[in-house]
User: Fold this.
Amino acid sequence: MVFSQPSSPVLKARRQRRRLYSRVLCVLLGVISAIWFIRIVCFEQTAQSSGTRGSSLYDAGGHSSASQRDAHQSLPLPLSNVTSHAHDSGPLSYHSHQASLNSPALTAIVPITPRSLLDLEATLSTLLQSPSPLAEVILLTPRQHHSSTRHVVQSILSKDDSVDVEMSLRIWPPSVEEGHAVLRAARDAMTDWVLILDEDGITNLSGTSLDHLLLREIPRIATSIGVRGIEYYLDGVICVSSSGSSAAFFVPPMVIPTAFIPEASNLAAVLDTNVWSTLGQYLSTAGSNVSGGLGAGPHENPLQQDWCSRYLPKGSDGTPLPVYGPISRKAIHSDDAAMTTAETVRQLDGVVTGTFLFVARGQDLRYLLPLACGLISTGYSASVLVQDVPGGLHRAPCEVPVSSLPSPPGADIGGSFYPSLLASGVLKNVDVIVSTLASKALIKELSFAVLVHIPPEDLPYIDWMNAIGFEEWKHWHTPEIQLSVITNNRPDSLRRLLDSLTSARYFGDRLNLRINIEQTADSETLRMVDEYSWAHGDVILHHRVTHGGLLTAVVESWYPHGNDSYALILEDDVELSPLFYAYLKLSLLRYRYGKLEDRSAQLFGISLYQQKNLELRPEGRHLFNARSLFEDAGLPQPTSPYLSQIACSWGALYFPEHWREFHAYLIARLSETVWPLRQTVVPDVRSNRWTRSWKKYFIELVYLRGYVMLYPNYADYASLSTNHLEVGSHVKDVPTEVYLRKKKLFNLPLMALPPVDDTTSLPPTGLLELPDGQLPPWKDLPVLDLLGEIATQETITKRGGDRRAELTGCDEPALQAHDVQDLLCTQ
Ligand SMILES: *[C@@H]1O[C@H](CO)[C@@H](O)[C@H](O)[C@H]1NC(C)=O
Ligand SMILES: *[C@@H]1O[C@H](CO)[C@@H](O)[C@H](O)[C@H]1NC(C)=O
Ligand SMILES: *[C@@H]1O[C@H](CO)[C@@H](O)[C@H](O)[C@H]1NC(C)=O
Ligand SMILES: *[C@@H]1O[C@H](CO)[C@@H](O)[C@H](O)[C@H]1NC(C)=O
Assistant:
């Protein structure tokens, strides 16, 4: 904050000043009464004439008539804290001579330039017209215009000797910029309100505007009231001149409570920046609930906006922000003063399919604006509310309305701004709010919208959100993902996995972490699990007391609750990319919650691991490269993610219906109610040789059903998880050399976080290195069978159905989804 609050230091200075006045007054009174006794008659006349009728002209801007004004009673401001400040001043408060008892006193500050000098006589005559609470006019005059100014004033006074407004001349030092000079003079005003003019004076203002500016209309709230305002819009501004609207800030002519003007010492601090925008910013945090002030008077002709170019705030590169508009903004009254960004959008593009609102701090915009623009280019509407100084405003790569959010940083933004937005009904049209500011009030009030809260530290990694469709955004909070870790006695492996979980990005989502610990777990593993702190949800520990083995450990590590619960099953020799969750969320939203045609009941899970080897071919292991396979086969999109029947156990998300079905299948299979354990279900695959492997049975189910899993297909095997193939259940008693060779075959490079610097807006994570930067439609995903051969969904389903018929003797195809009795024909 550049300016101080108007409260204590200001008041203190005023009280000191008043104390001084009161002492001076006491001395004066003493002297006067002494003299009065001696020369009663003679001096009475003089005192009267100079006290109530005289208009004097001073050179140095002193307030030598203070004692006079002190004798009058203070009048409160219409509202608020400023009122009580004025009351504090007690009997020695200042006030003008003629002000009506119902209106506050006013000082006008008139800067003199060659241009304003031309109209000065007209300006002053208009200002001095009664009725008006105008008590004083301060003419801020460069030395070279002193005599001309004095001349004009004398001419006015000579024409009308009924003028009882005090006029003073104050030197405007050549080095001081107009805004600062004016505010400095305003700060010293002895009245509760000041009217600030610029070199245009009051030319071209309507009578109604003047009534507001001269406080003939008593303001309802203590804030700056002006007829010309500037509102931020896109990467620039709109010049606003209509009644009842708010603006980010107002420019002269404007009337403002004196106490709201920052102290002179603070003014100096903003000498090189945008005086009026800083003042607006200051006002919006200083007691008023209307951003930057309130517009008054009738709608001005937008073509008469040559004032606007003079007051354009400068962007961070020092050039004035571009001007948009004039956009017609309907006159609104202060109850819904915050003009609706959403409405502006609706006016701009006809068809609206979904409305997004981004709520952020200024420094977050470089990450959020590209996202907002992506949505807009897809046909949605998006607007941005930014909490702090527009100096942090980044150039938007597209037309996106940006409005400022008046609230002190760090405060809960629900307090002052949202009530007025809510009252105006604007937010009712918003479908999705993406916010970097946590606000309890906001969440409570906006329960009808989807509120996605992204922690600021995750913002540089949100480029993938560009590929989320509207339906998918609406389901942001629907899936519940549990992380299910399976561990035994490999503390070093476990530590690496937990570290990768800690450094991954979760974009504000909550995920519970379940750790399944084998009976044979060592003490270091137990200690590590005990000490691990998980910031994104609950930790559930499960410790076995009888040995279960890997099959039991994996299969029992999770059981779904409802059809939106998912588990990422993680054996402890897996390590994750920091972007694993982004990938999961993106693909889960698309293929489970996206458009109807992109969802399929055949999809049983999402693998984070890329396939680099095919293990199920009867002749042995084969190297595998999806991209070259697709290229050789002449597929149109060799970089597309693909579907495969192979279940992955090195970092994969499993879906509830299929996992439930797997439990039922396993129960039937292990209890040998249908077939003997040694029965071959899938012909000619190596997994038939695996014993006590959960995957062997999962593969059987997948084969019979024609299910598929989604696999990533990024360049150079860049993967969201990898396996370190450590000695454990899978890898036992192999010679070191063989083991190391094997390890190399399975270890994949993890997709890393992109570097973040100050220049790029939104660094690419690499997750969108997809055909057209999107996850492809379901029907375009290549399908591979268990042997890694290109197939189609129909072929694999038919293959499974045929095998089922062969094994069960059932002619009827299985019709009940996920019903194992139906599948095994045991009903
Ligand atoms: C006066 O200021 C105090 C503290 O800044 C605030 O709590 C109170 O609401 C204000 N009163 C009005 C009427 O604005
Ligand atoms: C007043 O309006 C006229 C056009 O109506 C314009 O030419 C002139 O520049 C305006 N004056 C000021 C000070 O804005
Ligand atoms: C904002 O100001 C108006 C007008 O003074 C007042 O009626 C309203 O209660 C205020 N709203 C808030 C949230 O302070
Ligand atoms: C979940 O899906 C299964 C299979 O489609 C269905 O039978 C079950 O009713 C669903 N459960 C819930 C809670 O919707």
Summary: The chain has four domains: 9-52, 98-310, 355-453, 480-808. The pocket of 2-acetamido-2-deoxy-beta-D-glucopyranose (ligand 3) is lined by residues 220-221, 289, 334, 416, 419 (CB under 6 Å).
